[in-house]
Each structure stands twice: as structure tokens, then as C-alpha cells.
Amino acid sequence: MHSINYIEIPSKDFEKSKKFYGDIFGWQFDYMKEADYLSFKTPDGLGGGFDKHYDISAKPGIIFYIEVEDIPATLSKVEKSGGKTVKGKTQISPEHGYYAFVKDVHGNQIGVWSKK
Hints:
- There is one protein chain.
- The protein is α/β, with parallel strands linked by helices and 116 residues long.
- It has a single domain, classed as 2,3-Dihydroxybiphenyl 1,2-Dioxygenase, domain 1, CATH 3.10.180.
- The chain has helices at 14-25, 71-80, and strands at residues 6-10, 28-32, 37-41, 47-51, 65-67, 84-93, 97-103, 109-114.
- The longest helix has 12 residues, at 14-25.
- The protein is globular and about 50 Å long.
């Protein structure tokens, strides 16, 4: 109860979103033609969707973080996939790990996190 159960991400091009999030994070997708909506599922089961009706903000609002094994390797994949590194690997604390900020192919800012 009270856990996050669904995330919606603005997208102007579902194919670009599928390639970016699928190649980098291993997400699976299902296109719902009647709603013109692209749903996704992460490897650990959290779901969400990409919606063409939301504006992509130049300033980040709520940020979600994706857990990754290796932040520098992930940042490299982001850059090669048309995204952008906003803030490189930064330590939170020895017990809380590291984070970085990236922008996806549409300009949405997201965080990546790793224990090491």
C-alpha cells in the first residue's frame, strides 16, 4: 500500500522512446493503438507508459531514478543513444551510493543510481 505503482513519461516519438529505454535499461513495451499509448514494464516489474499529450518541461519537476549496475557505462550508453549527461557520477555518501542525471532523447531529465 502507498507504493509507487505506475509512472508516465512524456514522449513525442514512441519509437525513439522504445529504443532509448529498451537498449539502455532493458524495458519491455506494449503499444495500445486505440489509445495511442505506449506502456512499459521494467525488468523488476514496475510499469508505466509514454504519453504524447504531456509537455516536456525544460526544468525538471519530479525526478525518478533508475537503478543501474555501472553509472559511467550507463552514461556512455545514454550519450550513444542520443541522450545527454546533465550531471556526472556524484557520491551521495559511502552508505547511500552514487547518482547522475541524464536527459533522454526527448529532453526528459531522469536520475540513475548505483550503490558503487
